[in-house]
């Protein structure tokens, strides 16, 4: 695939006319990466966008203690680091080549010169970035509940489901009223000496109550521990999604402000170069 076609396949540039795509493609530079080579690290200042021609690249977030959260595995035709073209801010993740990789690099300086000379192209790119941001936010908001809540529910065993139902019933008014009725009936019947099988002080009743309490407590704790683990997973997932969206939105807004400022300055410069028409003096 030639460079122009590769750029046209990227959502960020797909709305550009052929002339703009050709001009932008001429600014791309070949970059070769060895296997397991770090393209850029989380926290570095971003200056370049990359388009993969051959190989694959992993995008991950460092979570400390030698742990990482893999966000994406990218292959030929895909791109990464595009936010650096807009704001030149810090990288929000680490990119690492998983095998020998060939990529095309577009620096922020070349991109800034391109959009400064072609303000109409800058507006098209802004529109595409805004649409991508809306789609990403909608997709991520739908995935949170499915990935955490529904996935955990599908993996519950039969015993765990029984424990949840026992805990649910044990914390309801139905359990309290049923248990109160059973105890009252037990004591009333045993108060009649002719029918008594557990006369006062109701030793058998106390044994039953102790047994029920001893069995019910660990079952409820099992359900509570599982709910706490589910809440923790949900909170972690929400944090990851919110952090990623916040970084992306902040970078895009800064980029929009910078590009619009460049476009305004260019329009003012062009307006200043246009000679104003002078009205002829009266005869």
Blueprint of the fold:
Elements: H1 3-8, H2 18-25, E1 29-33, E2 38-40, E3 48-54, E4 57-64, E5 67-74, E6 79-80, H3 84-87, E7 94-97, E8 101-107, H4 108-117, H5 119-154, H6 158-170, H7 173-191, H8 203-273
Antiparallel strand pairs: 1-8, 2-7, 3-6, 3-8, 4-5, 4-7
- Count of helices? 8
Distance between the termini: 67 Å
H-E string: HHEEEEEEHEEHHHHH
Question: How is the quaternary structure best described?
Answer: single chain
Report the mean per-residue pLDDT as an integer. 79
Rg, rounded, reads: 33 Å
Shape: elongated
Strand order, biggest sheet?
1-8-3-6
Features:
single chain, 283 residues, alpha+beta, Jelly Rolls, 2 domains, 4-stranded antiparallel sheet, 16% strand, elongated
Q: What can you see in these coordinates?
A:
The chain is an alpha+beta fold and 283 residues long. It folds into two domains: 1-117, Jelly Rolls, CATH 2.60.120.10; 119-270. Helix content is 59%, strand content 16%. The chain contains eight helices and eight strands; from the N terminus they run ααββββββαββααααα. It has helices at residues 3-8, 18-25, 84-87, 108-117, 119-154, 158-170, 173-191, 203-273; strands at 29-33, 38-40, 48-54, 57-64, 67-74, 79-80, 94-97, 101-107. A four-stranded antiparallel beta sheet has the order 1-8-3-6. A hairpin with a 2-residue loop joins β4 (57-64) and β5. α4 crosses α8, α5 runs antiparallel to α8 (203-273) and α6 (158-170) crosses α8. The longest helix has 71 residues, at 203-273. The protein is elongated. The N and C termini lie far apart (67 Å). The model has no long low-confidence stretch (mean pLDDT 79).
């Amino acid at each position: 695939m030639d460079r122009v076609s590769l750029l046209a396949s990227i959502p960020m540039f797909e709305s550009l006319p052929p002339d703009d795509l050709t001009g932008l493609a001429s600014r791309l530079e070949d970059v070769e990466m060895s296997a397991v080579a770090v393209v850029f690290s989380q926290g570095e200042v971003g200056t370049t966008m990359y388009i993969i021609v051959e190989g694959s690249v992993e995008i991950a977030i460092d979570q400390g203690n030698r742990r990482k959260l893999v966000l994406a595995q990218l292959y030929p035709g895909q791109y990464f680091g595009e936010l650096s073209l807009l704001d030149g801010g810090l990288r929000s993740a680490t990119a690492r080549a998983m095998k020998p990789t060939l990529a095309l690099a577009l620096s922020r300086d070349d991109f800034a010169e391109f959009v400064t000379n072609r303000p109409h192209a800058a507006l098209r790119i802004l529109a595409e970035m805004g649409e991508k941001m809306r789609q990403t936010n909608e997709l991520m908001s739908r995935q949170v509940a499915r990935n955490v809540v529904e996935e955990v529910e599908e993996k519950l065993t039969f015993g765990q489901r029984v424990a949840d139902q026992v805990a649910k019933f044990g914390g309801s008014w139905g359990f309290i009223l049923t248990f109160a009725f059973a105890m009252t009936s037990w004591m009333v019947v045993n108060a009649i000496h002719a029918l008594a099988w557990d006369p006062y002080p109701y030793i058998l009743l106390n044994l039953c109550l102790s047994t029920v309490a001893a069995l019910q407590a660990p079952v409820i704790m099992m359900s509570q521990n599982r709910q706490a683990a589910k809440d923790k997973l949900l909170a972690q997932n929400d944090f990851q999604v919110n952090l990623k969206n916040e970084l992306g939105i902040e970078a895009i807004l800064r980029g929009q402000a910078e590009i619009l400022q460049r476009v305004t300055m260019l329009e003012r410069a062009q307006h200043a170069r246009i000679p104003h028409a002078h009205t002829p003096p009266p005869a």
